[in-house]
Amino acid sequence: MRIVKEARPDASNVVHADEFEYKDPVDGSISKHQGIRYMFDDGSRLIFRLSGTGSEGATIRLYIEQYVKDSSKTGRDSQEALAPLVDVALKLSKMQEFTGRSAPTVIT
Question: What is the pTM of this model?
Fold first, then answer.
């Protein structure tokens, strides 16, 4: 995806993107439209989900997972280590343009 390389030339390539569903392992029920998922060729992935059950507003949850082969890099500060994927996520989602927020309200 060209937009990924525009955001971060050092980012891995997207190999798959989809709107995913969840299958409950207990009762087998399927919940569709659970979020948007981007998978990268290095095993990293981004997931965007909406949450909120109220009649007003919603929370956008962004999950960022990065696979690192080099064990010497696993102790890095998460903000620093995930910065390339954060940049890509913000560019793909246009989150700041849609929400007017330039920073998250919660980071876990």
Answer: 0.78
Backbone angles phi, psi at 87, to 5 degrees: -60, -45
DSSP type of residue 58? -
- Reference 40, options 9, 67, 22, 15; nearest CA is 15
- Type of residue numbered 89: A
Beta bridge partners of 14: 40
Cβ pair 68, 76 in contact under 8 A: no
User: Phi/psi of residue 5, each to 5°?
Assistant: -70, -30
Contact criterion met (CB below 8 Å) for 14 and 8: no
Half-sphere exposure of residue 96: CA atoms within 13 angstroms, side-chain side: 8
- How far, in whole angstroms, is CA 89 from its chain's centroid? 6
DSSP secondary structure letter of residue 12: P
Residue 90: how many CB atoms within 10 A of its CB? 15
What pLDDT score was predicted for residue 56?
66
